[in-house]
Amino acid sequence: MGMSRILRNALSAAAMAAALMSPVAASAQANYPAKAIELMVAFAPGGGVDLFGRTVAKVLTEEKIVNQRIQVFNKPGAGGELGMAEMAGPRKNDNHSLSAFALHVIYTPLTLGTPNSYKTLTPIAKIFSEYQMMVVRTESPIKSLKDVEAALRKDIGSLRFGGASLGNSDHIVVSKFAQLLGGDPTKVTYIAYSGGESNPAILGGHVDVGMGGLDLMDLVKAGKMRALAISSDKRLGGDFKDIPTFVEQGYDVVNQNWRGIFGPPGMSAEVVKYWRDAFTKMVETKSWKAELEKNQWSNSLETDTFVASLDREYDSSKKLLGQLGLLK
Questions:
Q1: Which of 10, 50, 81, 260 could pair covalently with 126 via S-S, beta carbons 3.0-4.6 A apart?
Q2: Mean pLDDT, all residues of the chain
Q3: If you average pLDDT over residues 41-56, what whole number do you get?
Q4: Are 168 and 103 in contact (CB under 8 A)?
Q5: Is 96 helix (H, G, I), strand (E, B) or coil?
Q6: How far apart (Å, rounded) are the C-alpha atoms in residues 161 and 192?
Q7: How far is 103 from 101, CA to CA, in rounded Å?
Q8: 170-174, 263-267, 295-299 — which is least confidently predicted?
Q9: Residues 6+ away with beta carbon under 8 Å from 17
């Protein structure tokens, strides 16, 4: 009996020593994060993903959910591919790097044939969903969706549409609209921009019709843009209450985009759990709920089920993009 007890104690001590010797386990449980977090936004400043990333950093910091500084930086280009490559390459195994993405992690590799996707990153959490707005600059002769319809029925390629990367939600909405009119969506003139770079193009008249997220509302409120429609299934509230949906105007176009946080490949399971717990706390705070209300974002937090959802969305998106002739 004495020998068994000694053996058990020895084994227990060895297990404790092994745990203490694991830097990942120790840092995740006690000292993580050990330094500032770098949160990369793979799109230009001013766009919807940029707003998302900076809002997340602000709330996590102000609510003291994370006790280290969160530094947000932008790495735009190629529909998010430059950002994905940054995470998959130089930041591989870096437990102090995060990235903010949207559907680009699915659409960009499918439409551009780029090598990285959500499969080469570490999905952590889907945070919220939002919708797309169709807008024109205030000086535009286009006053309504009926005007857009008339132009496309006359010549499907006559209007220049500007939005995020090819195959992105912005492009999908335009393609669905064209299909409803009996047009070939592959013949639509769609000009792809990175992040918020489409906004100057819309304001400068370089495109006839613009697409974007709900962050465009600031430009609408400032009198610089006119909103024609929103891709929600019913009218939103707050500042968006006067913007009609496609549906209520007789066009069956509904589409939503989501925003999520990813880590680099090789991020430890303990750190992934830390961030999933952090985001679960964040979405329950009053300050985050205020951001949801202000921006009309729809809470859609997913953590453990995020990867499975991405897989399903990848399959359905591949099918849809194939029908639209957008697969690379």
A1: 260
A2: 90
A3: 93
A4: yes
A5: coil
A6: 9
A7: 7
A8: 295-299
A9: none
Question: d(Cα 305, Cα 210) in Å, to the nearest integer?
Answer: 34
- Please spell the DSSP secondary structure of 117-160, one letter per residue: -GGGSEEEEEEEEEE-EEEEETT-S--SHHHHHHHHHH-TTSSE
Given a cut of 50, whether residue 307 has pLDDT beyond it is: yes
* C-alpha span between 99 and 263 (Å, rounded): 6
The answer on pLDDT for 269 being more than 90 is yes
Q: Please work out, in degrees rounded to the nearest 5, the angle formed at the alpha carbon of residue 117 by the alpha carbons of 315 and 170.
A: 70
List the single range of 17-26, 55-64, 66-75, 125-134 with lowest mean pLDDT. Answer: 17-26
- pLDDT value, residue 237: 86
Domains of the chain (ranges plus CATH)? 21-130+258-323 (3.40.190.150), 133-254 (3.40.190.10)
34, 52 in Cβ contact below 8 A? no
Q: How buried is residue 290: exposed, middle or buried, by Cβ count under 10 Å (0-12/13-18/19+)?
A: exposed
The CA distance from 258 to 191, in Å, is 22
Report the range of poorest mean pLDDT among 3-12, 38-47, 132-141.
3-12
d(CA 20, CA 95): 18
Half-sphere exposure of 238 (CA within 13 A, CB side): 13
State the virtual CA torsion across 128, 131, 136, 138 in degrees, nearest 10: -60
CA 253 – CA 311 distance, rounded (Å): 24
Q: What is the pTM of this model?
A: 0.74
Query: What would the two tokens of residue 150 be?
Result: 């008339």
Name the phi and psi angles at 289, rounded to 5.
-60, -30
Looking at residue 5, what is its pLDDT? 52
Residue 205 falls in which region: left (phi positive, over 0), alpha (psi -120 to 50) or beta: left
Rounded to 5, what percent of the chain is helix, strand, coil?
50, 20, 35
- The stretch 288-292 carries a mean pLDDT of 96
